[in-house]
Write a structure and sequence with these properties.
The protein is an alpha+beta fold. The protein has 18 helices and 24 strands. 53% of the residues are buried. Keywords: 4Fe-4S, Glutamine amidotransferase, Glycosyltransferase, Iron, Iron-sulfur, Magnesium, Metal-binding, Purine biosynthesis, Transferase.
Length: 492
């Protein structure tokens, strides 16, 4: 990009959707990545295109797809949205009945094309493509050991670590993949593709979501079930912790590389990340979020005139809060969907007003009213303060903030882009101090017990309802300390 263009552009980075980390004016948590796989359908590329489009909310920086016709790989990756990376002619060139695809939001890995997935490799038994959602906590340690042994890495993505572990093994592919997965620690959902096989794996704690669907005789795999609905497939089941599936000419083979550990699906999937039309652990996300709002009303009722949710992820919870309290639900905040998720204004003064680029308060709805504002989380607190002030500027007489998650105090090691602990406002301030910081009249967070009860998926007898809530309570389901080399965020 030329210096002249950079001087005149209204965003930072080399392209519009490039991640900005702490410089983003919207300090919400960033989605991890999304994967989509097809086995046994003649239009695998087209299915993957629509599936990835349904998963676009999980990653907007890059998209990629690898398809095989049984003889050779056809693949393409690019920076930007799915609809920008692929066109009709390009999809027509991606022929084959097996496919894996990926949408990516980079966090711990650099934002550049070489890290876009699927990663494609040549190794002794032929071609191998790898796509993953999640983060390998001990990747830096393994990477250093591999480099000392002569391995040369082409990317900064920790996904490449698994490819090297497989390539160095003297065992057949499936056994080599099992050994590789046993060596890594973290939260991950992997899709591995060869010219005649698709291998699917989920980490032993089931931290990252992955589901299986069926379309005719074809098997489909996706980070969220909404992708199956998009292509007209039926949902079969979730991939279980430690499970490894192999699909080849002989059909589907169910296996595992590790015994399941404490089940710990990321709680933020329910609270924020996943689309409301997706199901996880047998629980619909919209229904779960409504229950969060209802439970929030029971725990922290406040007399008010209207309830509004911060779009889009908090709308369901706001409806639940309104239904439980009898207070009218209104669209007090409207989202502008066309600003781009990482739009950056060129000056700090305009950055402070930048939230208006994305959200608008409906003056006729909130003016002269006591407003309950429902949101899913508070990270640094800057966005919450801007939204509260937006409502006040529109004439709200009171703004009471209700957060449908416990206070977010700790970084994530398993695939969510979180700031350092010291940047998380709840790690150093009390609820009363946060309330003052965001300029609210009152502030309450959902209790951990209320969250578990509201989610209601899986076996309620599971520890913490089968959820990972380490970002709230510092109780990580895996080892996280690897001599200071561990990483958090999303390494895919």
């Amino acid at each position: 990009m030329s210096d002249e263009i950079k001087q005149n552009q209204l965003w930072t980075g080399d392209y519009y959707n490039q991640g900005t980390g702490p410089n983003d004016i919207f300090d919400t948590l960033k989605e991890e990545c999304g994967v989509f796989g097809v086995f046994g359908h003649p239009e695998a590329a087209s299915l993957s295109y629509y599936g990835l489009h349904a998963l676009q909310h999980r990653g907007e920086e890059s998209a990629g797809m690898c398809v095989t016709d049984g003889n050779e790989f056809h693949y393409h990756r690019g920076m930007g949205l799915v609809k920008e990376v692929f066109d009709k002619d390009l999809l027509a060139s991606l022929t084959g009945s097996l496919s894996i695809g990926h949408v990516r939001y980079s966090t711990s890995g650099d934002s550049r094309l070489t890290n876009a997935q699927p990663l494609v490799f040549k190794y002794r038994d032929g071609d191998l493509a790898v796509a993953t959602n999640g983060n390998i906590v001990n990747a830096p340690k393994i990477r250093r050991e591999l480099e000392e042994g002569g391995s040369i890495f082409q990317t900064t993505s920790d996904t490449e670590v698994v490819a090297h572990l497989i390539a160095r093994s003297k065992k057949p592919l499936v056994e080599a993949a099992k050994d590789a997965f046993r060596q890594i620690v973290g939260g991950f959902a992997f899709l591995l593709l060869t010219n005649d096989k698709l291998i699917v794996a989920s980490d032993p704690n089931g931290l990252r979501p992955l589901s299986m669907g069926r379309l005719g005789d074809a098997y489909l795999f996706a980070s969220e079930t909404c992708a199956f609905e998009t292509v007209g497939a039926e949902i079969i089941r979730d991939i279980q912790p430690g499970e490894l599936l192999v699909l080849d000419a002989d059909g589907l083979h169910e296996d595992r590389f590790a015994e399941p550990q404490r089940k710990a699906l990321c709680a933020m999937e329910y609270i924020y990340f996943a689309r409301p039309d997706s199901d996880m652990n047998g629980s619909n996300l919209h229904s779960a979020r409504k229950r969060m709002g209802q439970r929030m009303a029971l725990e922290s009722f406040i007399d008010a005139d209207v309830v509004t949710g911060v779009p889009d992820s908090s709308i369901s919870a706001a409806i639940g809060y309104a239904e439980q309290t009898g207070i009218s639900y209104e669209l007090g905040l409207i989202k502008n969907k066309y600003t781009g998720r990482t739009f950056i204004q060129p000056s700090q003064e305009l950055r402070e007003q930048g939230v208006k680029m994305k959200l608008s308060a409906v003056r006729r709805v909130v003016e002269g009213k006591r407003v309950v504002m429902i949101d899913d989380s508070i990270v640094r607190g800057t966005t919450s303060r801007r939204i509260v002030n937006l409502l006040r500027e529109a004439g709200a007489t009171e703004v009471h903030v209700r957060i449908t998650s416990p206070p977010f105090k700790n970084p994530c090691f398993y695939g969510i882009d979180t700031p350092d602990r010291k940047e998380l406002i709840a790690s150093s301030k009390t609820v009363e101090e946060i309330c003052k910081e965001i300029n609210a009249d009152s502030l309450s967070f959902l209790s951990p017990e209320g969250l578990v009860e509201a989610v209601g998926g899986g076996n309620v007898a599971d520890y913490k309802g089968g959820l990972c809530m380490a970002c709230f309570d510092n109780d990580y389901p895996t080892q996280t300390d690897f001599g200071g080399e561990e990483q958090f965020g999303c390494g895919c």
